[in-house]
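quick one, 226 residues, struct below
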Amino acid sequence: MNQITRLRKDRAAEPVMAESLKDQAYEAIKHRIITCAFKPGQELSESTVAGLLKIGRTPVHQAFDRLNTEGLVDVQPRKGVVVRPINLDEVMEIIEIRLLSETFAVRLAAERASSAEIMAIRDVLAKASGAVGAGKVETLMLLDREFHRLIARAAHNTVLADILLKLHERSLRLWFISLAAPDHQGSVNDQHHRIFQAISHRDVEAAENAMRAHIDSFRRNVLRNL
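---
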C-alpha cells in the first residue's frame, strides 16, 4: 500500500471513529444519569467527565448537547452542565401521557400481536423473573424498557411506537428509582405477567385495565420514593 492510499484510508476512517467516540460518550453519560450515578442536580464538567470516561472533551461536549436536547441535562450560565433535577410536575405529565398512549397501545397489541411477538414478550418476562430473584435493579430496568418496547411494536402502529420510544427514554431514570425499592420489583413482575396474559388471550379490555393498574402502581411508588 503506497502512502497516498494509506492516507486516504486513514481519512475515510476518521468520521467513523469520531462518530463512535461521540456515541460512546453519549451512552456512558446517559447510563450514569438514568442509574443515578450522576445524581439529579449534580454539576458536570467536560474535563472531569472526559477523564472519567478516558475520552476526549469533544465527544463529551457533543454528548452533552444531545442529552440537553433530550432533557436529561441543562446547560446553565456560569454553572456549566447540570444533571436535570427530577421535577414533580414533569413526572405527573409523563404518567398522564403514558396512561393515554400505553393503554391504547396495549389494546392494539392484544388485537394485532403476532405469535412471534407474543413469544418475544414471554421471553423477556422469563428473564425478568430471574433478575427479580437476583435483585438486579439495572437489569430489571432494561428488561422493563424492552417489555414496553415490544408491546409498542406489537401494536403495529409505527407513529405510536416512535412516540412511546421517546417517552420511555424519558422515563428510564424514574423506572430505576421505582425498581430500586425491593418490595416493588416482584409487584412489577406480577403486573407485567397480567398484561402479558391479557395480550396472549386477545382480551382487549383486560389488557387495558392491567396496563392502567401497572402505570398507577408506578405513579404511587415513584411519588413515595422521590
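Confidence is low (pLDDT under 50) at residues 3-16.
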